[in-house]
Each structure stands twice: as C-alpha cells, then as structure tokens.
Design brief:
Number of strands: 18
Distance between the termini: 28 Å
Shape: globular
Strand order of the largest sheet: 15-12-14-13-17-18-16
CATH architecture of the largest domain: 3-Layer(aba) Sandwich
Helix content: 25-40%
CATH class of the largest domain: Alpha Beta
Number of helices: 18
Length: 539
Amino acid sequence: MKFPQFSMLPFLMVVVMLSLSGTTLSHPHWDFLHCLSLRLANYSTISKVIYMQNNPSYSSVLNASIHNTRFSTPATPKPFAIITPLKTSHVRSTLYCSKKHGFQLRIRSGGHDVEGLSYVSEVPFVILDLLNFRAIKVDTKNEVAWVQSGATLGELYYAIAAKTNTLAFPAGMCHTVGAGGHFSGGGYGTLFRKYGLAADNIIDARMIDVNGRILDRKSMGEDVFWAIRGGGGNTFGIVLAWKIKLVPVPAVVTVFTVNKNLEQNATKIFHRWQYIAHKLPDDLFMNVWITKVNSSQVGMKTVQATFRGMLLGGVDELITLIQDKFPELGLAEENCNEMSWIESVLYFGGLPLQSVDILLDKNALPTLSLKAKSDYVKEPIPESGIEGLMSMFLEEEADNAVAMIPAFGGKMDDIPENELPYPHRAGNLFEATYIVQWTKEENAESRKYISWNRRLYSYMTPYVSKSPREAYVNYRDLDLGINNNDYTSYEQASIWGFKYFKNNFKRLVQVKTKVDPMNFFRNEQSIPPLLSPWKKKGN
C-alpha cells in the first residue's frame, strides 16, 4: 500500500490528549499511533476511531462485544488499542500500521467467539472492531442482500423482514451473533435442512487482503472465495461485507415445543428421535436441548429433553406429519403456534414475540462465562449411552449447562463435503454442542465447570465420529490443539485442523500459503501457511 504524505497536526493532537490522560507508551506503541494518526483525517476522526487504555470509553468499547465473561477478567490480556473504523480507508490504515510496527491484529465483528480469539491475545495486539460496519442493503426484486461484517444476525433479519415476509436467510438462532464471524465458519439455523448453511448462500464478498487490496469474488479468485466461506475468521484477510442470496419462506410457518423429562420417558423418546429426525422432509427443522430442571418432587432435580422445531407450513400439516412419523413425541395442537418467519426468529432466540425491534438490541440476552465443545454423531446412541449422558446433567456443575442437538439430513445430505471448507454433510445424524455456563462472579471456580464439560466430552467418545473426531469451527475449542505464536507446522495444525475441516484443511493451507505467506492474519487456531516465515529464517 502506498499513502500520500500527511500533516503532523493530528498526531500532535493525540500526543496532547494522551499527555493529559497520563498515558505512558513504549516506542512501538508510539510508532503505531504516529503511523495511524497521520493517516486519519483529523482530531475528530481520531477521537471516534482510536481507543487507548486510558481513554474513558476504552473499557466500555472493549466489553460491549464480549459475550463470554470468562475473557473479561482483570487477568485477561488487553489490546494496546481498539480501532473502530468508520470507513474502508481506516481499515486499510490499521492493517498497514499493524504490519509495519509488529502488532498482531484481532478482527472482531460480533464478539461471540467462544474462546475469545477475536479480542484476546497473549502477544501485543490491536483489536480492529467492525462495530461501525453494520450497513445492510436488501434487494427483494433480485432476492439478494449486502450485509457488512459488523452487523448482527438480528439486524440482518430485521432488515429483511422490513421489506418482505416471504424471504429469509438461513443463518443462526442467536440474534446478537456477528455476521462476519458466523459466515466465516459456516453458520446454521432453523432453515439449514432446507437451504444449507449461511455460507452456502453467499454469492460475493468484499475483502481487504494482507497487502491492502480491496477485492471482490472475481478479483480474489474462486480459491479464496471458497476459503472465506467456512474456513474460519481472521485467517485470509478482512472481509468487510457479504452478498447473500435470500431464500423463499411461506407467509406462515409453524413452531412447536414439547418437553419430556426422565419420568416422562425422555431417554426412550430421544433414542427414537435419532432414527427419525434426519429422514423427515427438509421443510421441517428439529432439535433437542438437554438440560437440568426442577422435578415435580419438591427439592429434587430431573433432566429434560426439549424437542423444538419449525415447519415451513401450517399446523395441520405439521401434526399430521409428526403423528405419522414420530408418534412417540405426542405432539398436540396446543404445543404448536403458527406465525411469520420473523416471529419464529424471536421464538427460537428466546425473545418476547411482541416486537421485532428487540432484534436490534445487542444486550437483550444475559452475558455469562462459558465453555463449549462439539461433536458429530453418525450412528444412533444406544439407550444405555443416553442414560449416562442424562445422568451427567444431574451433577452440580450442570445447573446451567445444555446439550444442543440439531437434526441433520435434508439439503445437508445433498452438498458434497468439499463444496465449502465446512465438511460435515451427508452421513451425520446430528451435531451435538455441549455448553456449560457460569456467572462472572464464579470465574474463580471456572475450572470445575470446564472440567465437567471435558468429562462429558470424554464420556461421549464411543458414540461420536472418529478418525477424525469432528468438531464445528464456530464452537471453537482450544482443547483440540493450538498454534504457536511463531512457527506452526502443518503437522501440528493438522491436529485441530482435520477435526474442523477434514480433508478440506489441505486446500485451506494451500490458499493461506498463496494469499498470506507471512502469516500476518493469525490466531491460536487460524490456518497456517505451508511454510511459515520463521521456518524460512531457520528458527
């Protein structure tokens, strides 16, 4: 990148501002700040874009998009600066100055990375926070939309529903998740059995590569376009915006919830569900949540399996289908509700149905500490295995834990596993995500909750995929393996890489080697180039 000469005035203003705040900076920090301030237009812009640690707004900006309070403790490494660009030139300038002065760049859209990789690093780093890149342009005539990476899924759904009630987008159920990170890992929700992943429905993108070039699908090439749709974020470049294909939905859909606890044969019903759910018509989404709940016996606990779903159709059609294919569930009309697709977004997001405006509220859900792990299941788990799973949810550490289990099949069976980096397609009955949560005040006891999660994962070993034991990259799990900060060999990264991407990991490494051979864009589980620069130097 080449830049024109700039006035020293903006930098001098920053010097005065930092002097008044008492901030003390080392030479590399000053050099970075000098570099960036010279490239921003004026003091007013700098004050809206650069947040240093002594800035009164630094903590609020940092914490605004932290959705796992396990990584918001006093001991958590903090960025030297947070950059909140207002336009593309600010992004390019941040990239340029970070490279020039040796700061690792962590890119954050919604901040839902469950291992905190978009806002935590063990080496000196800067956060590039895309919170101002939230524009969404919906074109109902051509059934497409452009969405910037900093927009949340809730903002996207809201924008679509404001224009039409018969188009939607197949992405996740949590409305506060950022589009950029979600799309980068694949992204599934209530429409994925009908239309595939969010990434399957991306048709163009606007990205800045490591050299500062602004690229679209044509100029980046099909290999890079393939890689950014499921290969994980913060790896191949900075994706600013995505062009997505909207999908048709009926004006009325039907949702349902049926709860079954252990005393109501939850184990047997879930066992039966495994044989049926993936074979049901692709118009039907079904998942199961396993949680601990209060028992009907005072002071006692039990385990509940919550069967939830949505049919792209009316209630009569749904009841007829379930009574025919899965009568064990006992679905009745009182378990069902007809509504619009956008109301179903609120329903599955655990939000009140009265107003869609809540989709614009990034703070509508409580923020807790958590640890997540994931599996894919290809053969039905025997009843004895399910009984053991249920019993683990009666343990003390599982008071705020959940196993989320969406049925696969449908469109997912039709897409080859090398179509995109996300490989978990045909042959999977369901995916299982194990999440344990605790309050920020309990962070001192986090080890016992994480230990429970790991024991549950270990218990599930005989019942899940093997060679590799597959995992979903959007539920990152550093227990699977991590990169070194400097040189990471292909063999070392393969330990976790094949779990997320199977054989697609090989192609991802080839793409990375081509577009970012010096491995500037990196984190603990980013795709490494085939031969890292440190290795070339003989280190």
